[in-house]
Each structure stands twice: as C-alpha cells, then as structure tokens.
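During the first year of the project, the team set up a workflow for recording each protein of interest as an amino acid sequence followed immediately by a discrete structure-token representation. This format lets reviewers and collaborators read both layers of information side by side without switching files. As required by the reporting guidelines, we include two representative entries from the current panel. The first entry is reproduced here exactly as it appears in our internal archive.
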Amino acid sequence: MLVDVAHYYAAKMRAHGPSPKGVDWNTEEGQALRFAQLTALIDLPEGFTVNDLGCGYGALFPFLARRFPAIQYRGCDVAPEMIEAAAKLFGNHSNAHFTVGSVPLEVADFGFASGIFNVRLTHPDEEWAAYLEATLDVLHATSRRGFAFNCLTSYSDPDKRRADLYYADPRYLFDVCKTKYAQRVALLHDYGLYEFTILVRKT
C-alpha cells in the first residue's frame, strides 16, 4: 500500500517540483493554513525536537524555523524522491535531517503528519482506516509531549469528493485519540478547508 502511495507522490514531484502541488495541495496559502493548525500543538518556547511523518519536500521545516530557530527537525517520507528534494532544499541546515521511511527513527517532543491520510488510491476504506489508526500508534509512540495530524473530513460535500481520496470521520478519530492516547485532545474543524486537524497533548 505504501509503495503505491510513494509512486503517486513521486509522480506529483516529477510533474510539479518541490511545491504545494508537488505534494498534492492546491495552494501555498492552504498549506500554510494547515501548518498553523498543526503547530498550535507546540507549547515550548525553544529547543525542542520535531518528527514530521510524511514530510514531503520538507516545507514544514522553514515554517517552524522562522518561529523557532533552535528547533531540531527530523523528516521522513516513504517516497525517496521527496527526501531527495528535501535534502537539496534544506540539507545544508544542521538542524534539519531527512530519511526515507514510514516510521521516525527517534522519539521527538512533537510529532506531525500533514496530508498522509488523504490519498488512498484504489485501496478499500477499511484497509485505509486500519493503516490510519496504526500510524496514529506510531505517532503516539514516537512523541513525548504530543502529536497532531489532519484528514479530509467526512462532512465534505458528496459532489466534491474524489474517488481516490479518504474522508475520515472527525468524531470517531477524536474518540480514538481521547480514549487511547491522552485526556487533552482538540478537534479543529473551523478553518475553512474540507478537512480537520486533531491535536493530542500528552502532558
């Protein structure tokens, strides 16, 4: 399944280069808005570590580094083409590291996953849902203070949905996170996109 996803995003990168469209987002503004929701999780002023699961070409790194220059950022992605692009863009920064893979190599203070649960291609919803929940376990296991992720919402208008995308139930995933990972969980569903973000605060 992840091989299929890696091939999909590699094709996007070849077509559009290291840009929002290269990771299947429509605009840079939408990408920045998503990052703002995710990083609302951060509750430390400086000197923390981040795992970016499904980092793409590493766009979250400069977004964070502008606010937190001392951040230690680690990005991983299943598509080697994405990691190659990220390393070319940001590999000269000593506080940014990129690896190919589906699991972070180290535990970090915060874990983020942006967009990795959207493109299911031809895989059944049940199979994709199981992958999503298994990946939440990974985020939980590799983050000390908390993690955040986003999904397309099942509240999307039926006539605007794509057959190859996965639209998750925000109520169900909120319950999963609340009962399985932490007492402090936030569901953000009010920022103007057909998606939601969940923040899981473990401390």
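The second entry, processed by the same pipeline in the following quarter, appears below.
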Amino acid sequence: MSTPTSPPSTPAGMHAVVYGGSIAGLIAAGVLSRRFERVTLVERDRFEDGPQARKGVPQAQHAHSLLTRGLDILGDVFPGISEDLKAAGGLIVDMTEHHAWCMGGVWLPRGRIGLDMTCQSRPLLEWVIRRRLQALPNVRVVDGREVTGFLTSPDKARVTGIRLQAPGGGPEETLEAHLVADASGRGSRAPQWLEALGYPRVEETHIHVDVRYATRLYHRPRNFEPGWEILSLSPRLPEQPRVGTIQRIEGDRWLVMLGGWLGDGPSTTDDADFLEFARGLPQPHLYEALRNAEPYGPIHHYRFSHNQRRHYERMPRFPEGLTVVGDAFCSFNPIYGQGMTTGALQAQALDECLRQGLDGVAQRYRRQVGQLLSTPWTMATSGDLRFPQVEGKRPPGYALTNWYGDRFQQLATHDLEALRTFMRVMHMVESPAALGSPRMLLKVLTTRSPPSSQAHAPVPMAIPRNQAA
C-alpha cells in the first residue's frame, strides 16, 4: 500500500466530520484530511476487514466504475491508489481498447484512446479507498454509529457538530466539529433537520424512470478470449428500453447486469428468465457469452425509481459549517455510471472552496456544486426524458439537441476525432460544449453516409459447455 499523506501544515480548522462511508464520503474525508488537523468519518454500518457488501449500500452487488475524471481525482487525493486497486485484483482498462460497446444499435470502433476506467466490484473499490483513508495519521473512523441530528450555535446560524448513537437506540453522544459533511446518500435526513432548525425546506427535482436491473456473477470461462474486458449493449432510446453489460472484475469473474427503463427489467431470480432477458437484447453477443457460462452466485435485483436533485444552491438561508456531498446532494440513474465520479467532483469542489479559508465555505461550496451538477444532471436526464412516459420539463431545443447528439454518435462510429471527443465528454474530462465546436459541427452536418451498424462488431463467441468452468 502507498505511503500515507502527512497532516496539513496550515489547517483550515481543527476538526472536520464526515458522516456516511460512501465512495463520496471516503473521498471527501481524504480531501478534508489535507485541510484539517483531525478528521472523523462516522458510518452506521460496521466495516469489515475486507471487500464485503454492506447493508447500507443496497446497490453494492451491482456494477460500479469510476470514469476517467473520477479516477484522476481519486489519484490526486490518494496518490498511487490505482496501483493499490490493481494489486487487490481490480482492473484499469482503456475505454475503447478493452470495451466492446454497441451504442444505439451501432458498434463503436476499438483502439486505445487514453481514457481509463476501473473494473472491480463496489465492495473492493470501497475497501481499497477505506484502507488508504484509515492509514492517514489524522483520520479516525467510527463505525456502528448513526447520526441523529446536528449540533448548532445558539442562533442556529452554524452547524457545530453532530449527535450520534448506536443504530436502534442507546446513549446519545456528541461530536463537535468546525465543518460537517453529509455523505449519507439519497436518504439523507439533512432536509428535515434543517427545516426543524427553522430553515426553508430544500427544493427537490425528481424525474421518475423506474429503472430495474438484475446482476449476477459468473466464472469467467477458460479459453474464452473475445477481445474485450467489458461488453456493453446500450439501447436506442426510446425504441429500445433494455440494456446489458458484462464487466470483468477481481477473481477472474464476470459481473453481468441486465436491466431496463419503465419497469422493463428481469423480475425473478430464475436462471431461465435471466437468460431469456439477455436473449431479448438487440445484439446476440451477451447472450451467446452467457448461455453456457457457469454462475458464481445468486441473482441480485435493484430498483431505482427516480433521479433526485436537491437544490441546496437555491436556499435563501443555509447554515455555515455544513456541506452536502454525493447522492445526498444529487443522485442519477445508475445506468449512466456518473454517480461516483460526480461525488468525486464535489469533493474536489470542497477542497477548492477551503483554499479560501473556512469562513463562508458552506455558501461558496453549495453554489459551486449547484453549477457543477448542471452538466451531469442534463447528461443523465436528457436520455431518460426521451421516453414520452417520463414526466419532466424538456429544455428549449430538446428535440434539436437529441437530433444533433444522434448524428454525433453516428459520426463517432467512423471518425476517431469525434469518438475521442465524445468519450472525453462522457468521462467528464471535457465540457459538452466540445461536441458543438465549429470543427465538430461541420463534420456532423456534412457527414452523409454512416457505415454499417455492424462494421466494428466483435464476432459473437458462444462458450462450449466443456469450457464454461
């Protein structure tokens, strides 16, 4: 494991508290360890000494990847963590060289593009980050405690700490801090606690999508070399509501996810139903890879009802000493894979705000994150809003934007510059404005004959039964 980072020589404050051991919470605690003399991470679950799923993370059994921007931020907070992740069995793969991706019915070209992403289980990623955090000399981890409310100044203008106790009850403790970060997820109780303190209720935007998916681990078959580490079949929205992926993870296993919008996902734990759903995808590659592969464990289901954005940036009053990070601020349709990277971006924003000192950091941070979230929120919800059944305000020019996006994706199937630009935007390395640069706009408008949708398709490779295990 890499060498721990030293405590800050000029701290912004004495003590910071992060509650919630999510990926966003762990990264935020790492950031705060560089700005405060002491940091305490509080988590309701008990942490196991190893990559174990937790009760408080119901989506832990499903696919999770850090996009390039998120991986870069993680490496800045915990230098050398990519090597730690690989040493623990995770993979760092190139987005197009190791990824066979059929997007909207068209296969993208393959080849190294210089954008890395992670392939591992969620418990492994969380454990590797947590080990690095626990190794920091000024960080203390308190697990098996839930937060029950805020401590405040007499005038309630500042949050000065938290109240906590064992889950289910018991003696209440208090923990004072100069800064509190809520990383407790989309079920965060901060809106209710702030309202009880006399603050207005935070405005929320919900876009209901009823995404359902099921995930299962498989043994990666012997002598099966399809030329990819990830296989993704993304639908053409709104005509095709189903999606499927195979991702290689630690232990030489496949993590397989099948799902869909508007309730169209696998609904049982039956092997035959799972395979039948895979067979119903628009391309045969995933089904052919699975039909003779050996399952490693049970089928896990997950339901995501709606995108949720809390507009803390719009609140006319907000206490100092409090920040909100990760899904507690905004949570997206997980099929787009933006959540962990957006949480890392929020932690980075908190670091930037603290460079100006502790005074006023809560106000600077919530306004900066409000702006930061606009791009990933639009990227995620614009796909969901393509379904007529999904209720939500379509922005001006929505139809034109979708037309242009579809044309750009067609261009990316045979133009490497367009492919690189598209992937850099998707990985949050570049702004979406790059898609509409004069050069890209000219290419999109003058390209008339897209190649065959199968031009870059891998050859479907069925696994012989005697090679499945």
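For the second entry, the following points were noted during internal review. The CA atoms of residues 150 and 162 lie 4 Å apart. The chain has three domains: 13-91+121-205+310-378, 207-305+457-467, 398-446. Both points are flagged for discussion at the upcoming steering committee meeting.
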